[in-house]
Design brief:
alpha+beta; three-stranded mixed sheet; two-stranded antiparallel sheet; 52% helix; flat
Amino acid sequence: MTARLISVLGAMIFASCVAAQSVDVVRPEERQKARRAVVKEQEKRAKQASIIEFRGQQAFKEKELRVALKEEITTIEDFGLSPARADDLAFFLEVFYRKHGYAKVDVHYVIESGDRLRLDINEGPRFFLSQVIFDGNAYEPADKLFEYMVGPTRERYSRLEKRVPFVASDLEEGTHLV
């Protein structure tokens, strides 16, 4: 009986301690607003960064590339240029191009005079999906399966576009949705 009384008293003390603690909960709207402010500041800084030069781009304007790489550019501005950060920037630039159908893009970087970075871009051709054949499909219409396959790409492009860019990673993701 004494053990039970002690455990009940312990539970009550624990409950009162927990109730006395205050928890600051950030509302989702406030968190989203703060995140938008950070993104806007990164975009502004990326557009003005003079330490990075793009060469060879034709499909995208320099501003578009800077906005796409805003986080990496602000990291370089904040912490300095290093070969690892330059390599990361070139990698993410290639990812950006691949997500827009440039499967053979090649980006090389050159660090000039210690504090300037040049990104040499060879875009290569843009690839589009023309036809996908679903071998062995007996249950679902091919159009429906095609929409599953290109779903991740469609999120970035309008359904009104007749030609869908070929994005290998999106197709692989789409196969898991079927």
